[in-house]
Amino acid sequence: TDKYPGDTSWELISLVTNMTMYSSGYRKYNLEGYIYDELLCVPRNETCYELRMYDSYGDGICCSSGYGYYEISYKDALVKRVENFTSSEFVTTFGPGCNMTNSTTNSTF
After folding, report:
1. Least buried of 9, 17, 52, 92, by fewest C-beta within 10 Å?
2. What CA–CA distance (Å, rounded) separates 29 from 76?
3. Model confidence, pTM
């Protein structure tokens, strides 16, 4: 986490069912500079997922707020490591049914 861990939250969405499978909610994280490890179990029949990272203040994990990062692993393989995103929402899609060539975008929902 960065200097303001309470600003950070996330949700994991199945792009097959378009439903939120897991979410952290705001204020779950409270230790500055701490590495949190979340282990999630996803159904075998789901083939494409979207991780949405949020920052309630809107400055992401970056810069004057301190540096943080997040990693996504799927089936014991690192999919993506994202450091210092500056948007308030950052989307990463992953899974065998996704188009992996354009798997990461900054967006506003």
Report:
1. 17
2. 24
3. 0.78
